[in-house]
Write a structure and sequence with these properties.
By secondary structure, this protein is of the alpha+beta class. The protein has four helices and six strands. The radius of gyration is 17 Å and the shape is globular.
């Protein structure tokens, strides 16, 4: 286990609007951060993305469910909780993050989660098309 990754994961679990700028202390200057909406290679951009999440969403929290380790990397399974508006229903996104280290700091954080189901399918009109595409490519064996 790489201590830099352990420290980073521990930070993610306790991160919040008031301390998210500390993220830069755990990451290389050229960290590669990717999620379904962003793909950046600078720590300043990564911090800005995270700060914007806390500014635009309400009741944000991050829960780490499982960790899988190799010599210089980890994969974490997580729940991301939020409200789109302060009075909206609390929502959850479940995903995985691949985290890599250069030995000193985290050099990559690559997120994998279903933006189609959690975001696009809920947008009027666009959601209809997302559901139609899913239906068309599905084997039709869903438990629903």
């Amino acid at each position: 286990m790489v201590q830099a990754i352990r420290n980073y994961i521990d930070f993610l679990a306790r991160s919040g609007e008031d301390n998210i700028s500390e993220l830069k202390e755990y990451c290389t200057e050229d960290i590669h951060f990717r999620d379904p909406f962003n793909d950046v290679h600078q720590v300043a951009h990564f911090v800005a993305i995270m700060e914007e999440s806390y500014e635009t969403l309400s009741d944000v929290s991050f829960e780490i469910i499982e960790e899988f380790w190799s010599e210089n990397a980890a994969v974490i399974k997580w729940h991301f909780y939020f409200r789109m508006k302060p009075d909206a229903e609390r929502e959850t996104i479940t995903g995985l993050s691949e985290i890599r280290s250069d030995g000193e700091k985290v050099s990559a954080h690559l997120d994998y989660w279903d933006s189609g189901e959690r975001i696009y399918a809920r947008i009027p009109v666009l959601g209809f098309f997302v559901r139609q595409v899913r239906k068309r490519v599905s084997a039709g064996l869903d438990a629903n």
